[in-house]
Amino acid sequence: MTGENAIPDAMLALNSTDRRLLTRLPPFSPVAVRLLSVLADERAPFKEIARLIALDPVLAGEVLRLANSGLYGRWLRVSSLFEAIARLGTGRLSQVAITAALWRGLPRRTAPFVREWWRHSIAAALLAQQDGQDLPTDHAYTAALLHGIGQLALFEDAPHDYPHLVERVYAEGLDLLECERDVFHADHASLAGLILESWGLPEKLCEAVALHHGAYEEMGLAVAVHTGCATAEHVGFGRCGCPEHPGAEVAAPIAALLANSTLLDSLAVQINQIECSLG
Questions:
Q1: Best CA proximity match to 25, nearest among 142, 157, 141
Q2: Mean pLDDT score, 241-262
Q3: What is the mean pLDDT of the segment spanning 18-43?
Q4: How far apart are CA 69 and CA 273, in angstroms?
Q5: CA-CA distance, 153 to 156, in Å (whole number)?
Q6: 128-161: buried (b, 16+ CB within 10 Å) or exposed (e) per residue?
Q7: Which residues contact 167 (CB under 8 A, 6 or more apart)?
Q8: What confidence tier does 15 reach under pLDDT thresholds 50, 70, 90?
Q9: Residue 27 DSSP one-character state
Q10: pTM, two decimal places
Q11: Residues 254, 227: contact at Cβ < 8 Å?
Q12: Of 104, 141, 204, 247, which is least surrounded by CB within 10 A?
């Protein structure tokens, strides 16, 4: 499976097995989808960005709450979307909006599995952002934040059985993706790519997410997502099925992140700040 045909191949497999998995999660915020397109243009006017966010009052409120969190500084309180955009810049704003949109659609937030999954997603996003600094603004953060959405769909399909499957995989040293395919006829990585595609997200994000456990060649974004995911799991945030011994493509960047003690020391603080801001 390569970046060129990963999504079509996964779609064919899912067509022949169980399409219900694609409907287990609510559609992603259409405002957030439109924002991803607009924010891809670094020349996008502030007024257009503020207008888009304002179309979704709940999302707008969550964006303001995040903009005022300790994560982004508290020296002057932001009271309008325009101020938030001016202070954060388009790259930061994209991260805030996508994080708030994902949180808003999160099912069963209080379930232990979902809470662990959410913290893994945030940790992976923050770490991928650090690793993918040469990538276009916010792409690594967004792709890593959404990379585990397939696990959430499997959990929604089998809220008791899927967490038990993950427990068994880690207890017995099995391959999570292989076990998912045995039970659900789809693995969470390919499923995540299909879910993002069904939400109308850009193809490069869909492919990077679908390929984040390997099988990539020159896909810098997929490598950044895998690096963030594996590092997050290594330091105790979530269980996404990352191999104990990563491939050569990601071994060096993972080691570099693990050697960054300042980054790792602040990781839990940043995750807690995001969680507290979103309630």
A1: 157
A2: 81
A3: 75
A4: 7
A5: 5
A6: bbbbbeebebbbbbbbbbbbbbbbbbbbbbeeee
A7: none
A8: low
A9: P
A10: 0.85
A11: yes
A12: 247
Lowest mean pLDDT across 32-36, 190-194, 240-244: 32-36
Task: Pick left, alpha or beta for residue 173 (phi over 0 → left; psi -120 to 50 → alpha; otherwise beta).
Answer: left
What is the C-alpha to C-alpha distance for residues 37 and 86, in angstroms, rounded to an integer? 19
Domain ranges across the chain: 6-26+105-278
Q: Between 77 and 236, whose confidence is greater?
A: 236
List C-alpha distances in Å: 84 to 29, 79, 122.
20, 8, 21
Nearest partner of 79 among 102, 63, 95, 57, judged by Cα: 63
Residue pair 112/166 in contact (Cβ under 8 Å)? The answer is no
Is residue 232 pLDDT above 60, yes or no? Answer: yes
Tokens 């209080």, located at residue: 110
- CATH architecture for segment(s) 6-26+105-278: Orthogonal Bundle (1.10)
Q: How many residues does the chain have?
A: 279
Q: How many CB atoms lie within 10 A of CB 80?
A: 13
Long-range contacts of 154-160 (CB under 8 A, 24+ apart): 154/21, 154/24, 154/180, 154/184, 154/188, 154/191, 155/108, 155/111, 155/113, 155/114, 155/117, 156/24, 156/25, 156/107, 156/108, 157/20, 157/21, 157/24, 157/184, 158/184, 159/108, 159/111, 159/113
Q: Would the pLDDT of 4 be above 50?
A: no
Banded pLDDT at 181 (limits 50, 70, 90): very high
